[in-house]
Amino acid sequence: MTAFWRSPWLGPSVALLVILAGFAADQGLGLILAVWLAAWGINIWLSNSGRTIGGFAVPILFGATLLVLWELAVRLYEVSPVILPAPSAIWARLITSTDTLWADFVQTIVKGAMSGYVTGCAAAFAVALAVDRSPFLQRGLLPVGNFIAALPIVGTAPILVMWYGFGWQSKAAVVVVMVFFPMLVNTVQGLKASEVMQRDLMRTYAASYWQTLFKLRLPAALPFIFNGLKICTTLALIGAIVAEFFGSPTVGMGFRIKIEVGRLAMDMVWSSIVVAALAGTGLYGLMALLERKLTFWHPSQR
To answer: Between the CA of residue 52 and those of 58, 64, 290, 296, 300, what are the distances in Å?
Structure first.
């Protein structure tokens, strides 16, 4: 019995039985199961092969498999495009609407999200240095910051839109509010990461506060700082897009999603989502790459 469970034929046999059961119940379901199990087997082989290419091929194949299964399910079961458009329809709309999507990208991501991201993170870093030097600010500002960070964006976004108008400036203000306190908290905690003995050693060398900060405390705080930067990449995109639901000019991803949902043009909605997802992934990947280059000494990067 033990030899049976360890048999190399057990996995393929079970997979074949699952496919046959799927075909017996529904030919479409059987085809979907066959594609899924075939891709699963290839992924397992790539993972166990020990080759470097497997590290890149596995996630790419997994994503391609999800798209193929999505396409098959929509085509075989004739799902309404209002409910869920096929990936091919989304791609076709993405290609034919590049001018509109580019204008939305510039308005929402470049002007709104990125300007607010840079401003909010830079301001949070500067305030973190002040908080680090002032116990009064640490006791008084951080609790207020945690309270403001807990406020829902659907409550603060309309207020900021009314204050700063319907242009990209109000979206940047929303992003600043969203990213400021996560970045502040991570930076303050990072500045405490250096050990007491290390700081004592710097004092024995007669190092000033700024010398200790730049040569010891900031390098030790880099993992925390990059953690805040990576968290804020997603918050910036969410803040800019959601803020456009409460007022914007006739351009922008949030505006486009709101308008196209009313028109039941879900392929355009999904195209905007794809652009936002690619932008968020690229920005997060850039922060992760910088983290790997600058914190190569940290155990998390080994």
So the answer is: 11, 19, 22, 20, 20
